[in-house]
Design a protein that fits this description.
By secondary structure, this protein is of the alpha/beta class. About 45% of the residues lie in helices and about 20% in strands. The chain is built from 20 helices and 20 strands.
């Protein structure tokens, strides 16, 4: 379908890998100013499509037409730069129009007589190439990369992603193509990029699993499903609504076709000898109807009903743990924490503040400098690491699982074979026969998740579980974790995922400063913004009060903290009452949890207490949030 003022027009695009069709004769276009988010399951060709559009991969048939002189920027999912390059050299290494012009200028200057120099200088003026290095440094600084001469080989994954991001933003391209731009970025950088894209006039095509990012940045959603491209003209929330309507309509169409098919099948079976005399058009219509009736409207459900082992009341205690890497990088300092049964904790903070190190110390993979972690005897960890599992590339998918167990216990006398279990993880019987080296990054992550959960852990530690997983898998993993009968720690930069899964946060603020916040990530950001707003207002009030008190030397000598607003009598009474109420609720929560685990309750008592527990948890969250607000004023 043609679009008005197109930047990109694609018609009849087809791509196969071996005997596997990724997409078949799909057509789409991007107009000036459009911001498109592309959604698809892992392994269906999202990254392949972006590589085709950027010219890095070929295709079987179809046409791709860009507007003439269109500047396109492409951020790959896994950017690569020669390790010996510096950060600033990396910004000149990718062949965009300006860097090619700068190299042309340098080549011209190296030739005696400088042939064609005037024409090159004129082009450099028009392209503002003289300012290229300054613009590169400016954007790198905004992305918190300050050491421009640092070698690429010494950069972390997050730093390398930011350098690559700077590389595509420097030129301010007309069309920006981003493949998983939020992977390896911390929350601060994700929010910066979100605001940058919302303010810019760039046209955008993006693959990301960050649903808040999709919702706030994109105005069009494409869904690649069953070799076909579907278009939804709205943000992610609109897409969810309209996609369900599409699935319901397809299901109803299949049901209607099924009813008609049974009637037509009976007609086709009557008088077999006369079949050749039947109306040809009716027979042709029958075979078309048969295709529709037998079409499967597949909503593959990743049903993670995996049994978790029994977990006792003692989980773990961190007893005055300290860890540092020299004086400039303190991870923990006399950290003390008692982890509760069935607790679901999120860990957030900027890259480099020690989130993954904390997890590794808990698991015994790293030793603290002082203090210790005391882990309960019944705790059985399931660790999903950021690095992932190193699979044998020559194994088949089914053999990876069978090497762990032939059968998986689901509890209640139920069990699944390895093949059945993999189907719950959206690996079809055909895909289970694929070799590991053929899997996409997301499919490897899904297989890795499968190997973690099948061991029946009762304490899941998930370090960046959302990287490379598709949205369908994330949605069902969220649902599983919400009902998981065990403990969970999640380290993630996916705000949507954290909001769905965790009930409180550990916030790593750097240099050993770790704060416990009773709520999810959105509640934390709202509290943080409110706190910053209050502090800004206080800063405005303090200079005014100083001006009015210039003649009063005694008042002028008081610390600024004394001039901050104090709690009113009513607020102080409220705070005291909250402390008592929270203590009572915590005691009630503990009593309910002990009763639920006692095994002595009747069915009615069990039902009543199961309903009461989430109500108590919600009350604790609300009252703790209000207590924190009052304590900020008091402090």
């Amino acid at each position: 379908m043609a679009i008005v003022n197109p930047y990109l027009q694609v018609e009849g695009l087809t791509k196969s890998v071996g005997d596997r069709v990724l997409f078949n004769r799909i057509s789409f276009g991007i107009a000036e100013g459009q911001r498109v988010g592309l959604i698809a399951k892992n392994g269906t060709g999202k990254s392949t499509l972006l590589n085709i559009l950027s010219g890095k991969d070929g295709y079987d048939e179809g046409s791709i037409v860009y507007r003439r002189d269109l500047e396109v920027g492409y951020l790959e999912q896994t950017p690569y730069y020669p390790p010996e390059q510096t950060v600033i050299e990396a910004c000149f290494s990718h062949g965009n129009a300006v860097t090619r012009l700068i190299k042309e200028y340098e080549t011209c200057m190296a030739v005696p007589g400088h042939p064609g120099l005037d024409e090159i200088l004129d082009r450099m003026e028009r392209a503002k190439a003289w300012d290229y290095e300054n613009r590169a440094k400016q954007i790198l600084s905004q992305l918190k990369i300050y050491s421009f001469d640092q070698k690429v080989s010494t950069l972390s994954g997050g730093q390398l992603k930011r350098v690559a991001l700077a590389n595509v933003l420097i030129l301010n391209p007309d069309l920006l193509i981003l493949d998983e731009p939020t992977n390896h970025l911390d929350l601060e950088m994700i929010e910066w990029l979100e605001e940058y894209l919302k303010r810019s006039r760039l046209s955008l095509l993006m693959v990301t699993h960050d649903r808040y990012f999709l919702d706030r940045v994109c105005s069009v959603i494409w869904e690649l499903d069953d070799h076909t491209m579907y278009t939804y003209r709205g943000n992610y929330s609109y897409y969810l609504q309209k996609r369900q309507e599409r699935i319901d309509a397809a299901t109803a169409e299949t049901a209607r076709a099924g009813n008609l098919y049974r009637t037509e099948l009976e007609w086709m079976r009557r008088m077999p000898c006369a079949r050749g005399h039947k109306a040809r058009y009716r027979k042709e219509a029958f075979y078309e109807l048969e295709k529709v009736a037998k079409r499967k409207v597949e909503e593959q459900n990743l049903s993670l009903e995996v049994k978790s082992a029994y977990i006792g009341s003692k989980i773990f205690e961190a007893e005055y743990v300290s860890k540092s890497y020299g004086p400039d990088r303190v991870i923990l300092k006399d950290f003390f924490y008692t982890f509760s049964r069935y607790e679901k904790m999120g860990i957030v903070g900027n890259n480099g503040t020690g989130k993954s190190t904390f997890v590794k110390m808990l698991l015994g993979l790293e030793k603290p400098d002082s203090g210790r972690f005391v882990v309960g005897e019944t705790v059985r960890f399931g660790y999903y690491s950021q690095e992932g599992l190193a699979f044998d590339e020559q194994l088949k998918v089914i053999d990876v699982v069978r090497n762990i167990a032939e059968y998986i216990d689901l509890g209640g006398g139920r069990r699944l074979s390895a093949m059945q279990f993999l189907q719950h993880f959206m690996f079809s019987p055909q895909e289970q026969q694929n070799y590991v080296y053929k899997l996409s990054g997301g499919e490897r992550r899904r297989l890795y998740l499968c190997t973690v959960l099948m061991r029946n852990p009762n304490f899941l530690v998930l370090d960046e579980p959302t990287n490379d997983l598709d949205i369908v898998t994330l949605q069902i993993l969220e649902e599983y974790l919400r009902h998981f009968k065990g403990c969970v720690i999640v380290v993630s930069h996916d705000r949507y995922f954290m909001d769905k899964v965790v009930d409180h946060l550990l916030v790593f603020q750097g240099q050993g400063d770790v704060r416990d916040f009773p709520g999810n990530y959105t509640q934390y950001r709202e509290w943080q913004e409110e706190k910053e707003r209050f502090e800004r207002e206080q800063q405005k009030v303090v200079p005014d009060s100083r001006k009015n008190a210039e003649t009063d030397s005694s008042r002028n000598s008081r610390p600024s903290q004394e001039r901050k607003r104090k709690l009113t009598f009513k607020e102080r009474r409220e705070m005291e009452a909250l402390e008592q109420e929270i203590a009572e609720l915590e005691a009630e929560k503990k009593a309910i949890e002990e009763a639920l685990c006692s095994g002595t309750l009747s069915v009615e008592e069990l039902t009543e207490k199961s309903k009461r527990l989430p109500v108590v948890n919600d009350d604790i969250d609300v009252k703790s949030m209000r207590w924190l607000e009052l304590s900020e004023i008091e402090g």
